[in-house]
Amino acid sequence: MLEIAGISKRFGGLTAVADASLEVREGEIVALIGPNGAGKTTLFGIAAGFIPADAGSVRFADEEILGLPPHLVARRGLVRTFQIVQPFASLTVRENVAVGCQLHAGSRAAALGEAAEVARRVGMGDLIDRPASALTIAGRKRLELARALATKPRLLLLDEVMAGLNPTEIVELLPLVRAIRESGVTLLLTEHVMQAVMSLAERVYVLSDGRIIAEGPPAAIVADPRVIEAYLGRGAAQRLSRGGHA
Amino acid sequence: MKTPGLLALAVLLALVPLPLLVQSGFWLQFAIFTLYFALLGQSWNLLGGYGGQRSFGHAAFFGTGAYAAAVLQVDLGVNPWLCLGLAGLFGAAAGGFVGALSFRYGLRGSYFALVTLAFAEVFRIVADSVPFTGAGVGLQIPLRQTAANFQFHDKAGFYAVILALTALATAVAWWLENSRFGAELVAVRENEDAARALGIDVNRTKLWAIALSGALAGFAGSFYAQYFLYLDPRLAYGVEVSVTALLVPLIGGAGTVLGPLIGAVALRALNEISSTVTSGAPGLNLVLYGALLIAILAFLPDGLVSLIPRLYRSRLRNA
User: Fold this and answer.
1) B217: nearest Cα among B189, B185, B249
2) Which CATH superfamily is domain A2-86+153-241 in?
3) Per-residue pLDDT tens digits for A22-34
4) What is the pTM assigned to this prediction?
5) Which of B1, B198, B204, B207 is the best substitution to test chain A (most A C-beta atoms within 10 A)?
6) Whole-complex ipTM
7) Looking at the complex, does the CB of residue A140 fall below 8 Å from at least one CB of chain B?
8) B60 touches chain A (CB under 8 A)
9) Chain B contact for A95, CB < 8 A?
10) B2-318 has which CATH code?
11) How high is the pLDDT of residue A205?
12) What is the DSSP string of A41-84?
């Protein structure tokens, strides 16, 4: 459904993404992990049309979308959320979500009606008339998710939806993400919370210094020495396997 | 937000028979100027209040509409009523021109404000130097007081026109609050990246908003030209027009239907009081505008309109 091939991006002298390729098949939950600064958010930005790439291609539903502006990418059904939440602060939860609904809803009234439904789906039914600025971080993360869902995406790019949440909130959010997939939405997520990656993702890509260094099921990935070294430093895998400390 | 919108239109409707009730020319003139301020303010409000693109150069659109109306009827003999419509188109085109250039290059916030101010000044200098605007001497519209000529013997005619134009502007604001386009525009104001991610064409939305805003400013310019029958570059493109356009909604409440109406009443009242008290010392009204603006920003950042729900709530408490 999504094929990212050979994407490179430099910011001045800094190579953020170097020849990165990954593939997401319809109906999958795929995670993209990597240490801070590995280029995950940049890669997301490129896929969703927010950042131009220096080289490579992004194919979505068998069509090249690299170079399309973000609103056209979104209209094709590839919708992203933001790691740093971007609510429409002075609007209520319902009004926020309705903006997403408008992408396909016929009228404003229909969008507002549908927004209530989407808000309930992500567990924000009680907060519907609350201004977005009054929400907690967990609430804002859910709102970010609700707004993206409201566009009826085919592929959802979730950029660290779990970041900043406490363990209880994470456990509450996991079934929601699974329910989204059950409803027929394919998911690509970046995540630092390994608990979420392990329990959600079917396949994991590891990005380090802008390169994809490993790919596979979560259990194999966490045992992969290259991945351990990317996170903990050279030689860490060897020391761990000898039973010592990293 | 829906009730105040209807309330605003109801207030305007209730104002229709005013000329029959008020015999004094003073009050009728006060009403005309107030509505004219409200029209100008609502024009700014569409772009600055709902769209968050705060222009400091609405005179660019106002003046273009005013000159279009005047030049077309004086030099080409176009019917002044038709000129009113065309002034809207010219105002929209001026808005589209300024918008296309500044939005394309991503100018926002203070940069957008500065570039609009610069455009208004450029337009003023151009109007000062080309022949068909009468340059610095100004442009006189010949006096021919017939209704067919959009000139009226008595002020009631002008009153009816400005009331209709202001009602139209208010209806547009009310439509914004209840339409898809309005919701997209507000989303763009709140967060452009989030709006993009949800499939909104941010630049196109802003461009429509500035064209709409320019059209209403163009109407205001045409009305001004017909009312005073005289234009010069400073009157048409001067900073005072731009300042009025933004003060009215900021004082009344930007991004609301009622705000510009309330702001216009407040500003006109202040104007009348200052000219009575100081027997018309020039420039003093601007000093008072400034003082009022500071007071509003300090104590009522959402404008005078934010007093309404407060009063309503305190009445509920007391009941």
Assistant:
1) B249
2) P-loop containing nucleotide triphosphate hydrolases (3.40.50.300)
3) 999 999 999 998 8
4) 0.89
5) B198
6) 0.88
7) no
8) no
9) yes
10) 1.10.3470
11) 93
12) HHHHHHHTTSS--SEEEEEETTEE-TT--HHHHHHTTEEE--SS
